[in-house]
Design brief:
Rossmann fold, binds 2-amino-3-ketobutyric acid, 357 residues, two-stranded parallel ribbon, alpha/beta
């Protein structure tokens, strides 16, 4: 338990420990966020994931639960033990996986989010104070109707083209709307309603590239897969065209942004959901940069038309001026510095590949 952990009593007189809750804690962003929260200190962290956490993730939290976010009895057990003041709700099925099991994606991404929002609202009522809720949304909420429209649109604003083509995109958009509802209108007609039980804050992330972990089940995975394969001297067949372009950022930038948004004063926030992005090379440009860093990297292009269609429906760039103005977002990297300063050194160390220069 961190020194800052404190406790409160339930109406039955049991002590509850004050904590932040991270769902999907065993995933890519979960690993990075647990580490960042542990480094920050000042709060106990409780992790929830469908699977048992691995050792490193477990070491970065105070307690971990293996179970389903749709299991209401598990959530109420959790609330019985912990006084949750802050939630980072990362659990989700991503865009590629979701297209094989769309109803399961709806269940996890929408029903799961609803369960967590209800937990936040119940907790807020029982404590009499707002619970903060972080929701990672995605560029998948956008749905450009054609490649021509995508090229014509260029950089898109938060409220444009919200007609996603994947269940993941639909469910992230639903999650944003549910969050807005729980913050502003929850139990609109109830006599005993609480004003703003949930302080909902969301970021639409682009594709995220981590040096430490590999994603699975996403459609932006071609970026991270390319660089991890090159570092391991494995050939990589990229599943999108060389001219496919979507925005990306590194995992440290993504986690840093989540923590900045969560610590921003509420009065400075003009939106519920913010776009952010760092760099947007085409797949071909990224492959060239990876080849320059990892001499001899074998990257080919074998287009999977269906996954390509998903990427074609996502914008080439997203406009993030509101995030810059309201809570000081600024990208930490260009594509080149992301590779040279973050990805290459860490990935080389990870796979213990010596520079073949
Ligand atoms: C995916 O590819 O599904 C995700 C995303 C862009 O949100 N990485």
């Amino acid at each position: 338990m961190t020194p800052a952990a404190s406790s409160a009593r339930t109406h039955l007189g049991q002590r509850r420990t004050a904590a932040a809750l991270v769902t999907g804690a065993g995933g890519e962003m979960g690993h990075a966020l647990l580490r960042a929260l542990a480094e920050q200190g000042g709060r106990a962290v409780v992790a929830l994931d469908i699977r048992e956490l691995d050792g490193p993730a477990r070491n970065h939290c105070d307690a971990s639960f293996a179970g389903d976010i749709c299991d209401e009895s598990l959530l109420s057990r959790l609330l019985g033990q912990y006084e949750i003041g802050e939630i980072y709700h990362l659990a989700a099925l991503l865009s590629t996986r979701g297209e094989f099991v769309p109803e399961a994606a709806h269940q996890v991404n929408v029903v799961g989010t609803l369960n967590l929002l209800k937990l936040a609202a119940d907790e807020a009522r029982s404590r009499g104070t707002t619970v903060q809720f972080f929701f990672p949304s995605s560029i998948a909420v956008y749905g450009l109707p054609s490649l021509e429209a995508k090229r014509r649109a260029g950089v898109v604003k938060e409220e444009q083209f919200l007609e996603p083509v994947t269940m993941y995109g639909c469910s992230k958009l639903a999650g944003e709307q549910l969050g807005r509802y729980y913050e502003r209108h929850y139990r609109l007609l109830a006599q005993d309603r609480m004003e703003r039980p949930v302080d909902f804050r969301s970021i639409r992330f682009p594709g995220i590239i981590s040096a430490d972990t590999l994603p699975s089940g996403g459609t932006s995975d071609f970026g991270p897969e390319m660089v991890h394969a090159a570092a391991q001297k494995k050939p990589y067949a990229c599943f999108v065209r060389e001219d496919a372009r979507i925005p990306f950022m590194t995992m440290p930038e993504a986690v840093g942004a989540a923590l900045s948004l969560m610590s921003a004063p509420k009065e400075s926030l003009t939106r519920i959901v913010y776009n952010i992005s760092s760099f947007a090379p085409s797949a071909g440009e990224f492959a060239d940069m990876v080849r320059r860093e990892f001499k001899g990297a074998k990257i080919s292009f074998e287009v999977d038309e269906r996954r390509q269609a998903i990427v074609d429906s996502w914008p080439e760039g997203i406009e993030d001026s509101a995030a810059r103005t309201d809570w000081g977002w600024k990208p930490g990297h260009s594509a080149s510095s992301a590779l040279k300063q973050y990805l290459v050194p860490r990935i080389r160390a990870r796979y213990a590949v010596s520079s073949p220069k």
